[in-house]
Amino acid sequence: MVYTRKDVSTLTATERRRFVKALLELKRRGEYDEFVRTHIEYYVADGENGLRTAHMAPSFLPWHRQFLLELEKALRRIDSSVSVPYWDWTRDRTTTSVPWTKDLLGGNGRPSDRQVTTGPFAYAEGNWTLKVGVTNGKFLTRDLGRARDPLQLPTASELQWALKDPVYDVAPWDSTVTQGFRNKLEGWGTGRGSASWRNHNLVHRWVGGAMVSGASVNDPVFWLHHAFVDLVWSRWQQRHRDDRYRPVKQPAPGDPQRGRVVARHEKLPPWDVTPDELDDHGSIYRYA
Predict the structure, then answer these.
(1) Per-residue pLDDT, 189
(2) Among 44-53, 71-80, 94-103, which is the least confidently predicted range?
(3) CA triple 41-65-170, angle to 5 deg
(4) What is the predicted pLDDT for the residue at 175?
(5) HSE (CB half, 13 Å, CA atoms) of 88?
């Protein structure tokens, strides 16, 4: 049965409560931390050796599509009514708008140490102690809008800039490409600092705290953010039906990217699924 992912701003009080409750139960069981471990393991950057699957590569979008599906399966084993809502950051753009409410994800971190002190994921509530991360911090942190050096969330026009590109991705299939929908959405730009962050990457920076690391999954907003990224990919697919996931085949022998990216019909670690098989989600879920 096809289920629906809704805009988080449209969730009823009951839907909010059930989503939060399922997340907390997944955390209590220890399953949630496995998702954090997986993301850390598969966050391989351009400068490292080996296969890149989760980031800085064409498979950024299908990898996170499957990652979301795995999380959703786990949540729906707890409560079959639950699906991951999406956060449209081109519209809900303030530090007090949805999803930063006490009955959903809680608000900003406090100035002294950026610890989140409101909502169900606050450390003081006792239900969301960080156990897996790149630091030894035990509490969830946020720095919404980055107080010391303010950032703005991506605008609708910045998102359209990515959506207009008719080509999925281009060689050398990494964070340096300036053409192709994938990297324009993922958001690795040229230069340094805030000017180099676009769309997806800029949102991670705007949220700050735990979201600025390979352990970004520790903040539940990760899933709402990536559900919207997945929705944007769906929109691109509908708009540009003449192009699909690239590369179709591995780069040629001698190419530095050979063996470092996943081709369309190759398995996408750590799952037994290919980008081609993840091209259409219509038989599993739809967006409202």
Answers:
(1) 87
(2) 44-53
(3) 85
(4) 96
(5) 14
Instruction: Specify the amino acid at residue 67.
Output: F
Identify the DSSP state of 264.
T
Measured over all CA atoms, what is the biggest interatomic distance in the chain, rounded to whole angstroms? 56
* Residues spanned by the domain of 279: 3-96+152-287
What are the two backbone dihedrals, phi and then psi, of residue 161, each rounded to the nearest 5 degrees?
-55, -40
For residues 234 and 246, what is the distance between their CA atoms, to the nearest angstrom?
A: 16
pLDDT at 123 over 90: yes
121 within domain boundaries: no
| Percentage of the residues of the chain whose pLDDT score is greater than 90 | 94
Q: Which amino acid is at 208?
A: G
Rounded average pLDDT over 217-230: 98
Query: How many degrees, rounded to 5, is the angle at CA 246 between CA 272 and CA 54?
Result: 50
145 to each of 7, 21, 215, 253, how far by Cα in Å?
21, 27, 19, 45
Domain annotation covers residue 183: yes
- What's the structural domain count of the chain? 1
The answer as to whether 144 is a domain residue is: no
- What CATH number should be reported for the domain holding residue 54? 1.10.1280.10
Residue 129 in any domain: the answer is no
The label of the residue with tokens 């956060």 reads 87
Predicted confidence band at 197 (pLDDT cuts at 50, 70, 90)?
very high
